Amino acid sequence: MTARTVLITGGNRGIGRAIAEEFIAQGHRVAVTVRSGNGPTGALAVRADVTDGASLDAAFVEIEAALGPVEVLVANAGITRDTLLLRMSDEDFTSVLDTNLTGAFRVVKRASKGMLKARFGRIVLISSVVGLYGSAGQVNYAASKSALIGMARSLTRELGSRGITSNVIAPGFIETEMTEVLPDEQRTDYQKAIPLGRFATATEVAKVVTWLAGDDAGYISGAVIPVDGGLGMGH
What is the H or E stretch that residue 209 is in? Predict the structure, then answer.
């Protein structure tokens, strides 16, 4: 796998941190955006908020000066504001879309400038099984994650002729800080719905991301790859 300059948004914890660590382990030049905390050892951590275009511009300037133009972008930053539809405020809905969807648009737009010049790029959007499968209480989150698929496929048609691929990964339930605090009964119920009978590790998601960004996946674009233990199959 050719060593690349990689940017992961939201790379200070959870899946984003695992993705950064896997790219670092494979010898890439890695930067992560963080709003708080630090990135993993070996990564350049830059302060940025995907809802703030000016902060992203500043982050790209810093990354490009230190590591070179971004060749691989992983749009991972995301939030949830879960509640049932009739209790969901306009702000609950729009804030999730602004981070999860419009945030991805902002960072893809900025990264694509260098990719177009280089006639090479790998864009990976981190969606969710919820974007395909649906989930009560997550109308906002599901809408934002589902929309990433249309974004990736439109990017494929628009940028593909310049050597830029754009794909979506849809993780299912992952062993993270959020799932660790779930009550045992709830964890058991979730696991019963998963054909493989367990949650994934963040590293299992990260390895799919690095493969999709690598040389062997250069002819894959506009694809949605689930990492969900079979939970969302058929969707």
Answer: helix 202-212
The helix (run of H) or strand (run of E) holding residue 30 is strand 29-34
For the record, the structure tokens of 81 come out as 């504001």
| DSSP category for residue 33 | E
Rounded CA gap, 181 and 16, in Å? 19
pLDDT digits (tens, 9 = 90+) for 159-173: 999 999 999 999 999
Residues involved in catalysis = 141
Domains in the chain: boundaries: 5-174+206-226
**pLDDT tens across 66-82, in order?**
999 999 999 999 999 99
The whole-angstrom separation of Cα 44 and Cα 89 is: 37
CATH class of 5-174+206-226: alpha beta
Alpha-carbon separation of residue 6 from 182, 224, 231 (angstroms): 33, 20, 30
